[in-house]
Amino acid sequence: RLQPDNPATWYELGLFRSIRGDLCGAYYALNAAYTLDPSGDFLRAELDRAKAAVNDTENPACGR
Asked: For the residues of 1-64, what is the DSSP string, one character each?
C-alpha cells in the first residue's frame, strides 16, 4: 500500500506469503514485482514455483 510501484516491496510480500504457505497470494505479489521489473531475475525462481502451484491441475493453490 505504501510503495505500490516498488518491485522490491512486492517481492518481499511474495516471499512472506510463500513462506507462510499462501502460494496463491505469493503468485499475486511476485507477479506484480515481475510486472514492475521484468528484468528482475532475482525473483524468477520463486515466481515459477508459485505459478506452478497455481496451475497445478490436481490441487491448485488458488482453489479453482
From this structure: ---TT-HHHHHHHHHHHHHTT-HHHHHHHHHHHHHH-TT-GGGHHHHHHHHHHHT-SSS-TT--
